[in-house]
Amino acid sequence: MHLHRRNRTLRKNESIRKMVEETTLRTEDFIVPMFIIEGHRKEEDIPSMPGYKRYTLDVAVEMAIKYRNLGLRSVLLFVKCKNELKDNTGAEALNPEGLMQRSIRAIKTAVPDLVVMTDVALDPYSTYGHDGIVADGEILNDPTVEVLAEMAVSHAEAGADFVAPSDMMDGRVGAIRRALEQSGHTRTGILAYSAKYASCFYGPFRDALDSAPGFGDKKTYQMNPANRIEAIKEVLDDVKEGADIVMVKPAVHYLDIIREVKNQVHVPVAAYHVSGEYSMIKAASEKGWLHYQSAVLEATLAIKRAGADLIASYFAPEIAGWLQER
Ligand code: PBG
Q1: Which of 14, 56, 66, 135 is a good FRET partner for 230, with 20 to 30 A between their CA atoms?
Q2: 157: domain range?
Q3: Is residue 13 part of a domain?
Q4: Does 139 map to a domain?
């Protein structure tokens, strides 16, 4: 055929393929989400997230040490708030002795060089399961932002390295930044869930935290999955308001958004491989329909290839183990 070049030359064997590989996963790329519950020495299964668990704080601290020993650098904390402590204003979210604040202190004390990031949103604390204060069936923006800013300061006070607002209220990144500055927390970062879509793939997470909305849905604050340009608007707003890292969520179903965001900003871009995306791979593998490790690595590599500098993932501990074996 007298071809000018044969592209298969670069795929001839494993050594050549490795030499020209464009994207590689590093243990440092990952953020490990952790679900923390009240009590002592307990781990609970989450039925819709096989293999992932909720831990009491004492066990969570041991897990954090384990993660750090695997080479992981960062955790993202979520707490399951007791029903009797839930209300419409998120009062418990501001409690200096609340589960989140105690968790931040305990993990930072046990593993000081593990980067602790914290979820900032009202849904786990809300009787309505919404990310904001509810009045007449509406999720109020400005009063919610005030609480979120106080919540962020309370996490910073406890020692959080980054606060991660996941609520999608307007103006919250700027308000959090001002509150952190005014309270002297000038070294606390903001990882903003900037392009967070109203996705069905959060279902298993809401089981994990018992945080499903009690009425309606989250479409008045989270984004319409049909929209692409709007994600850029959200991201640019958050960068202008002072976000250190911006995040796209979910991940595998939104690879185009990750790439588009990566091309538009000069801050690190994170992506959240969410609970439903995790459970899909788990379920298909348990049925023998997918090869587990191959599916996990291919999906995760795709997120990185799309442009994610950081990946929040329930697969992170397992992936870190695999990378260590290599
Ligand atoms: C809540 C929050 C959600 C997730 C992270 N923070 C759920 C939601 O918005 O209902 C989802 C994470 C996942 O599905 O893995 N503010």
Answers
A1: 135
A2: 24-325
A3: no
A4: yes
Q: The CATH number of the domain where 46 resides is what?
A: 3.20.20.70
Position 7 in a domain: no
Closest CA to 311 of 84, 86, 25: 25
Confidence of residue 155 (pLDDT cuts 50, 70, 90): very high
Is the distance from CB of 273 to CB of 312 less than 8 angstroms?
Answer: yes
User: Given this model, what pLDDT does residue 38 score?
Assistant: 97
Measured between alpha carbons, how far is 171 from 196 in angstroms, rounded to an integer? 15
Q: Is 262 assigned a catalytic role?
A: no
Domain-located, residue 147: yes
Average pLDDT on 32-46 reads 97
Judge if the beta carbon of residue 315 lies within 6 A of ligand 1. no
Whole-angstrom distance between the N-terminal and C-terminal Cα of the chain?
40
Ligand 1 binding pocket includes 48 (Cβ within 6 Å):
no
CB 303 within 8 A of CB 281: no
Binding site per annotation, positions: 234
Active-site annotation holder among 249, 262, 282, 304: 249
| Probe residue for ligand 1, chosen from 166, 197, 249, 281 as the CB with the greatest number of ligand atoms within 8 Å | 166
What is the SS3 assignment for 78?
strand
List the residue whose alpha carbon is closest to atom 5 of ligand 1. Answer: 166
The predicted structure's pLDDT at residue 326: 84
Predicted confidence (pLDDT) per residue in 119-137, tens digit: 999 999 999 999 999 999 9
What is the pLDDT at residue 101? 98
131 lines ligand 1 (CB under 6 A): yes
249 is catalytic: yes
